[in-house]
Design brief:
6-stranded antiparallel β-sheet, globular, 10-stranded antiparallel β-sheet, glycosidase, alpha+beta, metal-binding, hydrolase, Immunoglobulin-like, binds zinc ion
């Protein structure tokens, strides 16, 4: 009967409520507060993970409630019904992916009701991104993208009243400075979160420092953001969870023996007093909600109504507690008007320790292949976006496919997706979604290339398994294959391309018919031995390509060269030999080499030198490991090893060392073979039965590549294993090292230290020194510097001077007790997961700028996209460009083409970034009129970073930081730090000038003809 009553009431209110009213949203819609009282902002919210224990759709539909009782569609349904009942009620909607799905299924009349709630600030979108993204493993490009997608949906659906004003990152496991920086650049007024190192939180409570002003960029001066830590995590006040999932007492106010109004109000006020004692203003925020709460929102609101009524009733007898429904935005607005001063924060909140034995640093590496697949998704997304713009793709299917990939990438940023902290079934579902998304992106890329090149019927196949040298398109023959390369970067780039081929001789020519140097390289036998890999091709054809935006290369088989048979080096390393024998790999391998093999001897003191004109590597013949590196005029003894942490209590979230056991090094001698080509030199190493590696240097490329292959990692009942790669040098780094923040600015780390407090590292000395490495980790002394770059997010540290460590793979035996309820023990193809990836080393003198590392970072994140087609003849590839594609080559060298994508049907979104920081770079200016013209622009306007708000309308809260002069007597704001660009095609070219400070990103919407 309850539901019938609900429906009746709903219908009545619906009739009343759709009458037009004047919209008062944003801060104007905030509840009144009372001076000289403790104002309690009660914030109803639901934390709805975009996948975790259940898949995204299972959560949405309330499917598989045996795993976890959760159904987001019902949450939104019932919340809306409850909001309609009383204009004082408030609710915040956080995850736009769920809301958008719900919205799609509503009738027009109901949509009108919801719009009214939004326009009156009763339903307030908070955070508003597609998902609540992780902050450790994500790349800034993908964070910006997923905010763009979420905020665009809100803007197009509701307009300005739906624009979120505050960040709400209440569940991610540690917080990055770059996230705060992005919020500021999107015009957010502040952010709130709830996880912080326990010692840090304790200290901040004492110092009234739970709220602070974060200096979120070392390069950008106005990028400061108010940041607040929730007092009691994001869950309801203890004892006051009124949700149907909870067992706390309701408020019983009738004529009943159980009437508990007095005790409930006493308890609540006591809690509020405790909270108020830890904050600087007369306002406190008390969230009312938790994971997937409000599925029957009437229960929550009915009890909160009573709580409000009876707490406020006490004011008549002198109570100074004033409570009301509110939102994080309204709370922040009150705090802003409170004109207090706040402590400063300059670094970040990593690592997160929930207690002295639990540092959440394992998830930096958990699910290494999923973390890599997410990068593949980003690569395809950027490629498809740019190509869609160039080719003017506009069919419904094409738009749908691109949107789908955008949205899936938003899902992948979620704090239980890219983190690897979801259940295995959910991980499989993410793989499925992302794979579908990538296929749609690839289809757009193909459609675009058919328009843009003179191969209107080209297949433009993207081979997604090139990492294990597998490509269906070339498996039978690479003869007459056209390789079309797309360069997502702004500037012309030269990179090596590898094509899986059979052992034959080939000639590669460019679009002008000129022969390009190429050679055939054997694929490491350990890769050939992968049971799930087809072995039609056992070699790779390597050539160097130079591409502005699009270029094609033509492969032809030639009959001239003889196939040389190479015999594997004689080996007395038993284990390797047996492995090879068991796999019957050597036989295949023997047949497949066409390069000169350097004879290696295991004589004492002897070494093997492998070098290009830029880099010299010395391999110790005794150990088989790297011994020294010479490049950029610097020589350094650099030893590279693999290490294993044997752990029993680690889990998907936590990397937990077992007390008193040290890392195990793989000390057995390494079997190695050197392939000494003209373009590429490779050292193939076998460390044990489940770790191998190829060290690779290319002629003309100033970095050393370490391509690792790890797995299946053996475990037993008591031992899980976490595998690291280690680089030892003599560089006296003095405990200091540097890691990137989400692939952008670098942060200085000091072993055993934190910015604001003394961490308790007594039980976890290593894990407590782990930091997220999204793109780079480095150390230096006064002369030399080494940097490691990676191809996916990982955890890393420097435990000894001169030493860098990256965690590559983990296979565990137990759950760590933070909810996921499974041991991280990935199985693929009925075997423990095998992962492959790359780490790159750059050795340089410290006088040299780290600019080269920045350029390498971009090439690693966004290399050429490779597409394969068949051509009947070479002539077909000549002058392969059918339609002119804009060139961004005239941008200053430090300017990155961060985004180029279709926005609306006649608009393009363009982001440019100066990717050097204040130490590496300088202010650059250039003119974008040529690009504007070549994109067919008629009008251009500048927006905030997310692309959805005109920059001229940006006005965000400024808070006073301690020690920065006197506090103003009036509330202060930031507006755009420069004059926003706005121009149309009738204006002079000089109106199109763009200046970029180091690390500055500027965002434009270009309206097309
Ligand atoms: Zn969560």
């Amino acid at each position: 009967m309850k539901y019938l009553g609900g429906i009746f009431l709903f219908v009545v209110l619906l009739i009343i409520d759709t009458k037009p009213t004047e919209a008062v949203c944003g801060y104007e819609s905030c509840p009144e507060t009372k001076p000289n009282m403790v104002n309690i902002h009660l914030v109803p919210h639901s934390h709805d993970d975009v996948g975790w224990l259940k898949t995204v759709d299972q959560y949405y539909y309330g499917h598989k409630n045996n795993i976890q009782h959760a159904g987001v569609q019902y949450i939104i349904d019932t919340v809306i019904t409850e909001l309609i009942k009383d204009p004082k009620r408030r609710f915040i909607q956080v995850e736009t992916s769920f809301f958008a799905k719900w919205w799609e299924q509503q009738k027009e009349t109901h949509k009108q009701v919801v719009k009214k709630l939004v326009n009156e600030g009763r339903l307030q979108f908070t955070n508003g991104a597609w998902s609540m993204n992780d902050e450790a493993a994500v790349n800034y490009q993908s964070v910006i993208d997923q905010f763009t997608v979420g905020l665009k949906f809100l803007d197009e659906t509701f307009g300005i009243c739906a624009r979120p004003r505050v960040g709400w990152q209440i569940d991610p496991f540690g917080h990055s400075r770059e996230q705060a920086s992005l919020y500021a650049q999107m015009g957010y007024d502040g952010e709130f979160f709830s996880r912080m190192d326990h010692s840090d939180k304790f200290r901040r409570m004492v110092d009234l420092a739970l709220e602070m002003v974060w200096d979120a960029s070392e390069s950008l001066s106005e990028v400061k953001l108010f940041t607040g830590l929730l007092y009691n995590h994001y869950w309801d006040t203890p004892g006051f969870c009124f949700d149907v999932h909870c067992n706390d007492d309701p408020i019983i106010d009738g004529d009943s023996y159980d009437n508990n109004v007095k005790s409930r109000v006493d308890d609540f006020i006591a809690f509020a007093a405790k909270v108020a004692a830890n904050f600087r203003t007369t306002h406190i925020m008390i969230p009312m909600g938790g994971d997937f709460q409000y599925e029957d929102a009437e229960v929550n609101f009915k009890n909160m109504d009573k709580l409000i009524k009876y707490v406020n009733a006490r004011q008549a007898t002198g109570s100074h507690y004033n409570i009301f429904y509110s939102t994080p935005g309204c709370y922040l607005n009150s705090v802003h008007q409170g004109l207090q001063s706040y402590p400063n924060k300059t670094l970040d909140f990593f690592p997160y320790a929930s207690d002295s034995n639990s540092f959440w640093t394992g998830y930096y590496t958990s699910r290494p292949t999923q973390k890599r697949f997410e990068r593949d998704g980003n690569h395809m997304l950027q490629t498809a976006k740019q190509l869609s713009v160039f080719a003017g793709l506009s069919s419904e299917q094409q738009k749908e496919d691109l949107d789908y990939l955008r949205q899936i990438m938003g899902v992948m940023q979620h704090h239980d997706a890219i983190t690897g902290t979801e259940k295995q079934e959910v991980s499989n579902d993410y793989d499925r979604l992302l794979y579908d998304g990538i296929i749609g992106g690839a289809s757009n890329a193909r459609d675009a290339l058919r328009v843009l090149t003179n191969l209107p019927e080209g297949e433009f196949e993207s081979c997604l398994q090139l990492n294990i040298s597998e490509c269906a398109f070339t498996k039978d023959s690479a003869d007459n294959v056209v390789v079309t390369l797309f360069n997502p970067l702004a500037h012309t780039s030269s990179q090596y391309v590898r094509v899986p081929v059979k052992k034959e001789s080939y000639q590669v020519t460019d679009e002008k018919g000129r022969v390009v140097a190429s050679e055939v390289v054997p694929v490491a036998w350990q890769v050939l031995a992968l049971e799930y890999r087809e072995n039609n091709t056992q070699h790779e054809l390597v050539f160097k390509a130079s591409v502005n935006k699009i270029a094609s290369y033509f492969i032809k088989k030639i009959e001239t060269r003889e196939n040389k048979e190479i015999v594997l080096p004689k080996s007395d390393k038993k284990s390797v030999k047996e492995t090879e024998k068991n796999l019957e790999v050597p036989k295949r391998f023997k047949q497949v080499n066409s390069m000169k093999k350097v004879e290696t001897h295991a004589d004492d003191d002897s070494e093997t030198v492998v070098q290009t004109s830029q880099i010299k590597l010395v391999i110790d013949n005794n150990t088989g490991r790297l011994k020294s590196v010479e490049m950029n005029g610097v020589v350094e003894d650099i030893e590279q090893k693999f290490g294993v942490y044997e752990t029993s209590a680690s889990g998907a979230y936590v990397f937990r060392e077992v007390e008193s056991t040290e890392m195990q090094f793989l000390t057995t001698d390494v079997e190695f073979t050197v392939y000494d080509g003209t373009l590429v030199k490779e050292v193939h190493q076998q460390f044990n039965e489940w770790i191998s590696q190829v060290i690779r240097i290319y002629e003309g490329v100033n970095r050393v590549e370490f391509e690792w292959l790890i797995g299946p990692i053996p475990t037993d009942e008591d031992t899980g294993r976490e595998i690291v790669t280690l680089f030892y040098s003599e560089i006296s780094s003095n405990g200091v090292f540097y890691t990137d923040s989400n692939g952008r600015e670098m942060i200085r780390r000091e072993k055993d230290k934190r910015e604001d407090f003394t961490p308790d590292l007594s039980r976890q000395p290593t894990s407590g020194n782990y930091y997220p490495v999204v793109s780079r980790i480095a150390l230096q002394d006064s002369n030399k510097r080494i940097a490691l770059l990676n191809d996916r997010a990982q955890g890393g540290t420097s435990m000894k001077d001169g030493q860098l460590e990256l965690m590559l793979h983990r296979r565990l035996i137990r759950d760590d007790g933070y909810g996921v309820g499974e041991a991280l023990n990935e199985q693929k193809y009925d075997k423990p997961l095998i992962a492959r990836g790359k780490v790159y080393l750059i050795l340089n003198s410290v006088e040299e700028s780290t600019k080269v590392e920045r350029v390498a970072e971009k090439e690693i994140l966004l290399p050429f996209s490779v597409f394969f087609s068949k051509a009947s003849s070479q002539s077909q590839t000549q002058s392969a460009i059918a339609k002119a594609v804009p060139s961004f080559d005239d941008f200053p060298p430090s300017v990155h083409l961060l985004t180029l994508e279709p926005f609306t049907d006649n608009e393009i979104l363009l982001r440019v970034e100066n990717f050097l920081d204040h130490i590496e770079g300088k202010v650059v200016s250039f003119n974008i009129r040529p690009i504007f013209d070549s994109l067919g622009g008629v009008e251009i306007r500048e927006t905030t970073l997310d692309g959805n708000l005109p920059l001229s309308e940006m006005k965000r809260f400024k808070f006073h930081a301690e020690g920065s002069g006197a506090i103003s007597t009036e509330a202060e704001y930031y507006t755009a730090a420069h004059k926003p660009l706005a121009a149309d095609s009738s204006l002079e070219a000089s109106e199109f000038s763009v200046t970029l400070h180091p690390m500055q990103i500027r965002t434009f919407i270009i309206k097309k003809k």
